[in-house]
Design a protein that fits this description.
single chain; alpha/beta; eight-stranded mixed sheet; 190 residues
Length: 190
């Protein structure tokens, strides 16, 4: 199985598909080699991530956006982010920091099997608008910790860092298991 992990720099709510036709075709040919995409966490993003996220949405390719990757999948579809007013409460640790409540009618709930989970927090931004996506997991401050598309097989963004918690938390590990299972299933269906 092949999974693309992308991460670049640049941080703005506006982005442009400024690739030449050759660059775009090269990028899409690389994505087509993969069974799924993970947009990793980080401080900043680049147009490549938005282009990848939009392409995945349009072609039902499984994608998991982590931290800044969550921001990228929202922005790719016309969404926006903003700086939170209380970063001192959310830019704390790679270990458990606070709980989030999950909507029971969400795909994410069916993946983790719980209405509430503990997550880590290293964030200064959150999702404002996310057209085509639903906000389905929230911390006590009301920030969207999970967004998803109900129309896609796996188009999910999380504000926290599941890669730091999966070894000790089966609910968190289920995110990666379900992502991989979806990638395998869609590959077989092709």
């Amino acid at each position: 199985m092949k999974i693309l992990i992308a991460g670049f720099e640049g941080n703005d709510n506006k982005w442009n598909d400024n690739l030449t036709e050759i660059e775009r075709e090269n990028l899409f040919s690389q994505i087509k080699l993969c069974d799924g995409v993970i947009l990793q966490g980080g401080i900043e993003m680049d147009n490549y991530e938005f282009i990848i996220a939009k392409y995945c949405y349009e072609n039902n390719i499984p994608i998991l956006g982590i931290c800044a990757g969550q921001n990228a999948i929202a922005k790719a579809l016309g969404g926006s982010t903003y700086k939170i007013p209380n970063p001192e409460e959310h830019n704390i640790s790679r270990d458990y920091v606070h709980s989030i409540k999950i909507q029971e009618d969400s795909k994410f709930y069916s993946i983790i099997g719980s209405k509430e989970i503990m997550v880590n927090s290293l964030h200064t931004n959150t999702i404002d608008k996310c057209p085509h996506l639903d906000k389905v997991g929230f911390c006590k401050d009301g920030y969207a910790d999970v967004i998803e598309s109900k129309d896609k097989e796996f188009y999910i963004g999380v504000r926290f860092h599941p890669e730091d918690l999966y070894k000790k938390d089966n609910k968190i590990n289920n995110i990666f298991k379900y992502f991989i299972e979806t990638c395998k299933r869609l590959k077989v269906e092709d």
